[in-house]
Amino acid sequence: METVLFFVFGAFALAGALGVVLARNPVHSALFLVLTLVSVAVFFILEDAQLVAAVQVIVYAGAIVVLFLFVIMLIGVDRQEDISHDPIPYQRPIAIILGAVALVEILVLASGTWATGAHNSRGVPVHGGNFGTNVDRVARVLFTDFLWPFELTALLLVIAVVGGVALARRSRHRPPPTSVPADTPQEVTTR
Description:
Mean pLDDT: 77
CATH architecture of the domain at 1-81: Up-down Bundle
Structural class: mainly alpha
Order of helices and strands: HHHHHH
Low-confidence stretches: none
CATH superfamily of the domain at 1-81: NADH-ubiquinone/plastoquinone oxidoreductase chain 6, subunit NuoJ
């Protein structure tokens, strides 16, 4: 049964990830992101990591996606974007190069033991002793070893919300652009 669930939700995760990237509407991209994050939460449940699955659904699929949707609606980009014209020249080639560099970096770093923590003598031991429940261990590590990254992430989220509100207020106060239909003759003034 676990194998069937893995492949079903693996297909959902891939479909959602492709939908995030390929959807032209930002709201649809955010909804595809929810599908991907919930599918990843099912993977965590299959690995007996219920706490991480709950955090995945509550924090990412809940709070972060709601934040994305809030900013999308506040800024007013809930319509299809025109991607045929690049507002910044050379943006796509630079993004492709940076993506390739990130992929190579991940492949090179994943070959070591840093991702699994196999040779990590520091940290909370998993077996033996009275270390409490999973929640106790995660809380102890999160609020001792990783306190600064935790606080900086909270600060970053607050800055993102303030930035979204500032962008929305600025775009609301701008006068709407006046457009003249192409078939309307325009007056030509001569001096």
